[in-house]
Amino acid sequence: MHRPGTSSFTGEECLPPGPVGAPQALLAAWSADPYGFLFRCRDAHGDCFTVDLGPFGKRVVFSAPRHLKALFTAPEGALLGARGNEVLAPIVGKSSAFVLDGPAHLACRRLMLPAFTGAALDASGSALLDAVDASLQEGGPTPRVVDMVEYASRVLLRATVRLLFPRGDAGLIEGVTAALGDIGAMLRADTGSMGAGMGGLRAGKARLDQTLAPFLAGRRAALQSAASSRPDASHMGDFVDRCLQAGLGDDAIRDQIVTLLAAQDASATTVAWCAHFLFRYPVIHAALVSAAAEVDLRAPGAEIFGLSHFVMEVLRLRPPAPMASRGVGRPITIGEYRLLPGSYAIGAILLAHHRVETFPHPERFEPARFRERKYSQYEYLPFGGGVHRCVGFQFSPYELQLVLGRLLQRCHLAPADASDVGDPRASWRVATTSPSTGIPTKMTVRSERA
């Protein structure tokens, strides 16, 4: 018997059983209803199952913590995140951490991590609050109905561009925002629309390149003339300078910026899901509004009682990506199964979050469960795991709490149709799943300002 996780064996592959059907039919079912498909397969086959997608490869799905640990701690070269994320390459670019492995991937992470950790959390807070406040001021006091996914995307885009380009003039900010808005629309497109949207994506990237070129040339010259200076690695505003000092070209810097945009779009989806659960659970909603009224969100360490656990529970039930895909680069054993190159190992985050052994009554929305116990990184993993875990795994919960907290303080939020607060289907987008309805929300700015 081979030791789990090793990759030195040879021989036949050994895969768990799974759904039977034509590959095209299985792919269509998975694409049309990703949550439902995964749950049906789990109910029929258990923690591990194989979905044979024919020319698109065999997807071997795992959700038990012991299997997820083996998947996310696989030896280097055995499981490749770049191959699992290959669908993203046309969007984020060939230099994105999403589509790299090994030393190149780690180098990208080292550039990006300081923007999302430590002092950067506090430095980014004011920009996030300013972006929410500005969006509400622009909307005025008249109640309006917004698509919450699109609304949150615009808010987070505004904050991100301001943070990335603190030295940028109005023309740069406007041009980058418009170009990234076009690219972001592609990220949020239904997977069936990808082909039709590629022209718009290329135009958005060309516009971004044209806008960035003179700014990057100016910053590169400034850094070369002040070679002794070093950027503050704890602030997102110096991210571009860090890229320049690392020797990245303009195309590679663009790819890093688009990668940051993709991470922010995942957060926008979670803001929308949070709104949905506020509407489904009005008692929790009212308690959070009351708690938010007492908090100055600009104060260091500010926290709204109950909001962190609310966000964690939303991320449990609606993780931004319901699974993490790794292409098999070398033969590997995971548990009792043997995977060979050409197949894919899938960490089913959604299914891991619905294990009754880990989360009693997993179908219930119970934020208090996170007050009662801690979960291991292979039981609760809304941002994935291993070296390809989302680079914003610390920043995103903080960001979500600030944006939601400000909306709770400044707005009365309600479903656009109070008679329909059912559970919207999760639909595949390019990088994530998103509520099929966008969560239409009636937003009314409160007369008093927190």
General description of the model:
The protein is an alpha+beta fold. It has a single domain, classed as Cytochrome p450 (Orthogonal Bundle), CATH 1.10.630.10. Helices cover 49% and strands 10% of the residues. It contains 17 helices and twelve strands. The strands form four sheets. It has a five-stranded mixed beta sheet with strand order 1-2-8-5-3. α10 (194-225) packs across α11, α12 crosses α17 (395-410) and α14 crosses α17. It is globular. The chain starts with 22 loop residues before the first helix and ends in a 5-residue tail after the last strand. The relative contact order is 0.18. Mean pLDDT is 90; it is low at 1-10.
Quick overview:
Helix content is 49%, strand content 10%. It has 450 residues and is α+β, with helices and mostly antiparallel strands.
Helix content: 40-55%
Average pLDDT works out at: 90
Provide the succession of SSEs.
Answer: HHEEHEHHHHEHHHHHHHEEEEHHHEEEE
How does the major sheet shape up?
5 strands, mixed
CATH structural architecture: Orthogonal Bundle
In CATH, the topology is named Cytochrome p450
Category by helix and strand content: alpha+beta
Radius of gyration: 22 Å
Structural domains: how many: 1
Shape: globular
List the helices and strands and how they pair.
Elements: H1 23-32, H2 34-45, E1 49-52, E2 58-62, H3 65-72, E3 79-80, H4 81-84, H5 89-92, H6 102-112, H7 119-139, E4 144-147, H8 148-164, H9 170-187, H10 194-225, H11 239-245, H12 250-280, H13 282-292, H14 307-317, E5 324-328, E6 332-334, E7 337-339, E8 344-347, H15 349-352, H16 369-372, H17 395-410, E9 411-415, E10 426-428, E11 433-435, E12 440-445
Parallel strand pairs: 2-8
Antiparallel strand pairs: 1-2, 3-5, 4-12, 5-8, 6-7, 9-12, 10-11
Helix pairs in contact: 1-2, 7-8, 7-17, 8-9, 8-12, 9-10, 9-12, 10-11, 12-14, 12-17, 14-17
